[in-house]
């Protein structure tokens, strides 16, 4: 079952995606990697049920991708002023 403290996985996913980017991964593949990591965490760490793990994993991966995108956009708009 998904617990509220499992939301801490989102920054962990962001960190793993950042490692891949520093290793040479193109920025355009970052959301896909985030979703893949989210699915892996959802299936193998958060939930014993595969269906629930997929849903939770998608939620985690898409949340990590959105958090990265919105933070990036916020700082880019701040630099233009």
UniProtKB/TrEMBL annotation:
Entry protein name: Holin
Lineage per the UniProt record: Bacteria, Bacillati, Bacillota, Bacilli, Bacillales
Transmembrane segments: 29-48, 54-71
UniProt entry keywords in alphabetical sequence: Membrane, Transmembrane, Transmembrane helix
Organism of origin: Cytobacillus citreus
UniProt keyword Transmembrane present: yes
């Amino acid at each position: 079952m998904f617990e509220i403290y499992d939301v801490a996985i989102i920054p962990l996913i962001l960190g793993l995606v950042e490692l891949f980017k520093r290793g040479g991964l193109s920025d355009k593949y970052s959301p896909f990697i985030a979703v893949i990591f989210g699915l892996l965490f959802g299936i193998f760490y958060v939930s014993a049920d595969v269906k629930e793990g997929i849903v939770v994993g998608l939620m985690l991966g898409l949340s990590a991708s959105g958090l990265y995108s919105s933070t990036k956009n916020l700082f880019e708009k701040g630099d233009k002023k």
